[in-house]
């Protein structure tokens, strides 16, 4: 909960010590579109959507509805207790951003635009959203993965890939 509150107040916090992703979150936040911590976790081929989310830190300022505070007895797949924020990203245009380390030890920004779409999600105390992209999800995941990102990325509301490229 604290990480989500900090993230929503322009102080992004890296989950799982993913420092590259906290940079991606800060870039999106600096453009005023959020910057929520997320990862790919399943694909629905019938509806051509990717479900993405994480157990924190969610950027509560970009939630579709009022976020829920949810006590958990299974926290990030481990037997323990914790308090989490459950939310979905606002429906509409989104930008994904990842800071990628290249084999030459340089960094590049990997950006994609899609849409957060309504539909069923896992109600497990995490940020969970459904995303569609201009190309089939199978092709999207393959093209995204071929660029070498870590498994986390940041998501913000709105399309700003041209601004990021500049």
What does this molecule look like?
The protein is α+β, with helices and mostly antiparallel strands and 166 residues long. It has one domain: L-fucose Isomerase, Chain A, domain 3, CATH 3.20.14. Helix content is 20%, strand content 40%. It has four helices and eight strands, in the order ααβββββββαβα. The strands form two sheets. The chain has a six-stranded antiparallel barrel. A hairpin with a 2-residue loop joins strand 3 and strand 4 (78-86). The protein starts with a helix and ends with a helix. The mean pLDDT is 92.
Could you give a short description of this structure?
With 166 residues, the protein is an alpha+beta fold.
Low-confidence stretches: none
The major beta sheet can be summarized as: 6 strands, antiparallel, barrel
CA-atom Rg in angstroms: 15 Å
Rounded average pLDDT:
92
The CATH topology is what? L-fucose Isomerase, Chain A, domain 3
Strand residue content: 35-45%
Q: Give the overall form.
A: globular
| Helical/strand content category | alpha+beta
CATH class: Alpha Beta
